[in-house]
Amino acid sequence: MKSQKLAGVAILVGTTIGAGILGLPYVVMKSGFLIGTINILFVAGLILLLNLYLGEVTLRTKSTHQLPGYAEKYLGKKGKNLMALSLFIGIFSALVAYLIGEGKSLSFLFTGTTDYSLQFGIAFWFFMAFITHYGLKSLKKGEKIGVSAVIILMILKD
């Protein structure tokens, strides 16, 4: 049970932090510290509120659904279709952002420039596709390791 809770927390932290961790310093640098901090706090509050709303809907619904199923139950067929489209666009966009961010990060890490971002992004995609091929259990382990590595790197950064 403890392992399942840790996996759930790792997935929630990984998806909430997500690719934003790669872009936040740049955005704050461009907008200024005060505006950047206000935006981060505002978006964090919205994400917290949305997660609390979803938790409340999940607790009050007797049957278990995925997001399009909840949308259909409470909003009808159009709500389900809109949620499915929204999820598709959101997930696709997030994956593209991850590939771009990881490609640039890996290229800079290994070559000192971002000239090879495309190649590293494609290599990262193949690596993750290989891991995904072996199922969600390997992704759970990878998520725990990845989130732990990000936290350790952020602590040891200085």
The residue fraction in helices comes out at over 70%
H/E element string?
HHHHHHH
Mean pLDDT: 83
Characterize the biggest β-sheet.
Answer: none
- Through-space gap between termini: 35 Å
The coarse silhouette is globular
What is the number of beta strands? 0
Radius of gyration: 18 Å
Number of helices: 7
Summing up helix and strand content along with how strands pair, one would put the structural category as mainly alpha
Percent range for β-strand residues? under 5%
Low-confidence stretches: none
The tally of structural domains comes to: 1
Offer a concise description of the structure.
This protein has helices at residues 2-17, 20-31, 33-60, 67-75, 77-111, 117-133, 136-156. With 158 residues, the chain is mainly alpha-helical. α4 runs antiparallel to α5 and α5 (77-111) crosses α6.
Provide a descriptive summary of the structure in words.
The chain has one domain. Helices cover 87% and strands 0% of the residues. The protein has helices at residues 2-17, 20-31, 33-60, 67-75, 77-111, 117-133, 136-156. It has 158 residues and is mainly alpha-helical. α4 (67-75) packs antiparallel against α5 and α5 (77-111) packs across α6 (117-133). The longest helix is centred in the middle third of the chain and has 35 residues, at 77-111. The two termini are 35 Å apart. The chain has seven helices and no strands.
